[in-house]
Amino acid sequence: MKVLSLASLLLCSSAAMAHFTLDYPQSRGFDDDKEGTAPCGGFDTVANRTQFPLTNGFLQINSRHVSAEITINVVIGSNPVAADFTTAAGTPANSTSLKHPGNACFPLDLSTFQGAANNTNATIQIVYNGGDSPLYQCSDVVLVTSAPSFDQTKCVNNDGSTSTSNSTTNGTSAGTAISVKSTATAAAALLIAVAMAF
């Protein structure tokens, strides 16, 4: 019985770690069962647009994997279709490796991104691969030179630090999240403690 309970616990734990959420700016929507559906995790209709600054912008995600490969694509336009995301993937705004689970903030400076300008509609796509298969989330934004409603306090990493380093990818400004403390050890200790209780 203890072995079965432990196996069930590990299976549930694995299922809970099988996705990520795009927490900021606002995602089009989230459904864990559809998140593997390109290009936007099963949400193909433009949703509410968030003001997104051309400079000093960022994305906030919550990763349920210990490590993942992250690609950020940007489609300029009001009503992108699947082919637009395929084209955008040829010149990603950012591509990086995430080395920890939990909160992760990725700076995204679009000031030199082709087609980006003040009052331009765009959709930001996150392609996330934690080792099993790609998962997708999108956020619809309007790019602006001044975004007073953009909340800088949303940029949080596991250790409470903010991401500040920027790099350039494919001629566009992009960001790289700083490393933060891993919670994998704490999660493993919790699983062992629960298993020992059986």
TrEMBL record:
Residues 1-18 form the signal peptide. Residues 17-159 form the Copper acquisition factor BIM1-like domain. CDD domains: LPMO_auxiliary-like. It comes from the Eukaryota. GO terms for cellular component: endomembrane system; plasma membrane. It holds the Pfam family BIM1-like_dom. It is a lipid-anchor. Keywords: Cell membrane, Glycoprotein, Lipoprotein, Membrane, Signal. It is found in: Cell membrane; Endomembrane system. The keyword Lipoprotein applies. This is Copper acquisition factor BIM1-like domain-containing protein. It comes from Entomortierella chlamydospora.
